[in-house]
Design a protein that fits this description.
The structure is a single chain. This protein is mainly β and 173 residues long. It is built from one helix and ten strands. A six-stranded mixed beta sheet has the order 2-10-7-6-1-3, with no helix packed on it. Strands 4-5-9-8 form a four-stranded antiparallel beta sheet, with helices on one face.
Length: 173
Amino acid sequence: MAYKSIKDPGKVSRMGGTAQRILLAPFLDFLILQKPAAGKYNITEAHTFPVGKGFIELYVTKDTGTVKYSPLGGPDRNSFDVTGEFYHPGESDEIEAFANDAKNERWIALVPVPGIPELFQVGDADFQVQIMPEYDATKNSGDGRGWNFKYSCFAANKIKYKASTITMAADPA
């Protein structure tokens, strides 16, 4: 591996957390799950799905979205343990159904972060995202009832999704 100098990135926004949405697609819905080019860490071609399938978008309450890449491995190999979470308020029929079904599904996530146009892709053909929903009614003085979703996945590398297209699932009739 040939390394090169990395200069000061300048004055750009590095706001923490995630944006107020997350995109998720069931792993088994993909026709083609794109990979980064060899030696690169960016996906530049759009994933493909059967007609009507694709990513869904979930609202994320402000200041609750996280994604973290922690080291995983030992002296002879290293990769990442990716973890994150987000909060969705309330108990609409749609979010209740999602929480009940999502815990038994394997996912690919596209996670937007503030200040950059690319998304972080969590999950690939080798390791998919597991979502663990947790409902909390909280207290009368709390912030209100809702769902906290934690997610995790092993990853060989941190990957950015830079394709110009994201196929979205059609809403069921």
